[in-house]
Amino acid sequence: MIAPAAIARMIADETARFTAANPRSAALAKDAARHWHRGVPFHWMLDWGTPFPLFAARAEGSRLWDADGHVYDDFCLGDTGSMFGHSPVPVSRAIARQGAQGLTFMLPTEDAVAVGDLLAERFGLPFWQITSTASEANRAVIRWCRGITGRDKIIVFNGCYHGAVDDVFVDLRDGVPELRRSLVGQVYDMREHTRVIEFNDLSALEAALAPGNVACVLTEPALTNVGMVLPDPGYLEALRDLTRRHGTLLVFDETHTISTRPGGWTGTHGPLPDLFVLGKPVAGGVPCAVYGFSAEVAERMERVRAANESGHSGIGTTLSANALALAAMRAALAEVMTPEAYAHMLPLADRLAETLRATIAAHGLDWHVTHVGARGEFICAGTPPRNGTEARAAMQGDLERAIHLYLINRGVLIAPFHNMTLVCPATTEDQVARLGNVLGECLSSLME
Ligand code: PMP
């Protein structure tokens, strides 16, 4: 429906428009290139489809200002790190308070007691540990699962993403497992210890579990990093039953699906996993992640630890659970990620999805919109994908890039890697309406 020539024209026009509108970002990009490799302190900052990086000046709530003074309605929200809004007041206060009292001691503070109680109460698992990132939490969890089961294999789903975690960088192409093609410096073959199967395929799951050598299944309850793939009704319950039957631990990574409700997907729909991972927004944007586990897992961990004479585990980094992260997480859990916040976010996310659907339909397109609570996603294809292969097939790189750039040039940010939108407690109905209008103008322009 949308001609490749129209997409190419939009990318060219919008690239020129961005360049003309952002002289300060252009100058900063030039200066930054003196010493930052490829001009940015972290290479993902180049992934927004802009001709040079957009430099941020500040952000507050659901808005972000750039170095040239433009203001954006921010539906990307740091790709989830700020999904409860930029600099929520309780978190900023906690950071300021702790900032004057020491940042990192490798000792617990009183906040640890409160945070432990908050995590256990909210997510239903009794024991917890902290890391600095969700990637690190997933690496720790995989190591623990292998350690306590004495099994070497893990299962992940095609199209999954759990952070910079070597073990899960395996894809299925035409049903054949292969190493993720984009990996740099990969020297060992993860397929030796990782089985990759399609989401929503119970017979593949049974076959992969059958040899009895699988330590854990690691998954998001709904895949959110390959577009969005929802579980079929009953699928997660079957996954829970099958893993239990095969002595395999079930790990839910709820780093993104915390968008569902205050207790995440698990606390809303169940089932309860053996281990649970949550990163990104859990300390309001301060680097921090947590993993929780059942009493049985804790007991098995203790047995492994007791048998380990050295005390070293290969798990953990120095800055984890420092005083700053604990203070920020306490404020985020107790005062920001509240039922009241979700009471604003969830209906507005419904509205956002309806707005996108109406805008898309008004242009005669059959694109699909789906959402898990406050996290929405549209795909430029008609049928909702049931697995990673279908989700990948729905991706339209150039078209999506053109749309992203058009939106940025009109003051709207959505997540750069796909078409993800987040609604935070500060997002307004006007911002949602404007997103719909700007997307509508974009589609009209593409279809002229
Ligand atoms: N788990 C999931 C589900 C994620 O989407 C991501 C990042 N997108 C991570 C883990 C890793 O988070 P981080 O990059 O903060 O380590």
From TrEMBL:
SUPFAM superfamilies: PLP-dependent transferases. One of its GO terms (molecular function) is transaminase activity. Keywords: Aminotransferase, Pyridoxal phosphate, Transferase. InterPro entries: Aminotrans_3, PyrdxlP-dep_Trfase, PyrdxlP-dep_Trfase_major, PyrdxlP-dep_Trfase_small. Pfam families: Aminotran_3. Its cofactor is pyridoxal 5'-phosphate. Coiled coil: none annotated. Belongs to the class-III pyridoxal-phosphate-dependent aminotransferase family. NCBIfam families: PRK07046.1. This is Aspartate aminotransferase family protein. It comes from Sphingosinicella xenopeptidilytica. The lineage of its organism: Bacteria, Pseudomonadati, Pseudomonadota, Alphaproteobacteria, Sphingomonadales.
